Amino acid sequence: TAYAAADGRELWSVKTGITVTSGVGVGEGLVLVGGREAEVIALDWRDGHEVWRSKVSSEVLSAPVAGQGTVVVQSVDGKLTALKSSNGSRLWVFDRTVPVLSLRGAGTPVLVQGGVLAAFDNGKLAALDLTRGQPVWETSIAAPHGRSELERMVDIDSAPQLWGNTAYTVTYQGRVAAVDGTSGRIAWARDMSSAVGVGVDFRNVYVTDDQSNVWSLERDNGGSVWKQDALARRGLTAPVALADHVVVADFEGYLHILSRSDGSLIGRARADGKGVLAPLVVDKDVLYVYGNGGKLSAYKLGE
Q1: Which of 38, 117, 195, 234 is the most buried (most CB within 10 A)?
Q2: Rounded to an integer, what distance in angstroms lies between the CA atom of residue 166 and that of residue 36?
Q3: Are 79 and 95 contacting, i.e. CB atoms less than 8 angstroms apart?
């Protein structure tokens, strides 16, 4: 379903005929979804009519991304597939072995000029040439360690966040790191565990760890700015920066507004009584929230 961003008015709705398991991706004039049976469907953004549908190698849990004439899809078997945006034909496949045990999820790829950044369940971040799917560089953010497969999980199940030429990412049971986008060299890293990802603004990197503590780190060196632990064990989403604040959502559907300067709790609002799992989206000064109960909301601070 498509809605007008300004007032939430429904514009169109389409039945795809598949079990949609991914988020929704947009680009190249397309709205893109992936399915349980490895389907990828492209709809016209204006009226929702189907442009094409294609198949990749396995179930799609992360949103497909599109740009530069290409749609890139990451599937749960560790493969990255590039499709032609005009007709869905396959251009290339990049394969990375999935560990024996991993979290149920997959990172969303990020398109850059002439390339794509992708994170994998083995704790690696890679940059690929968009034309041929060849790796430009590949960097281990965290190395598996421990006696059991459970202890050795270092999944990256979130999209890398870009600021300038630096990519920021975090692994489960591993590290949060800043990576140079040209060389793949790690600029800084520190121990941290998160399955939901990071947020970034002009000054800081924000992380929700696996205990739902919210951290603010210096973007240039990873040093601690503040830690907010009053929301521990509330199943928080990744933080997003909104004006002079940081916002997270929780398993009860509350939005928690934190001060960007010191992490203090400023206020909260309830978006969906059934909770929020989907990543929060900020566009300009508007926060969009999609709840587990199917409720889509838009918020402005102070309104």
Answers
A1: 117
A2: 33
A3: yes
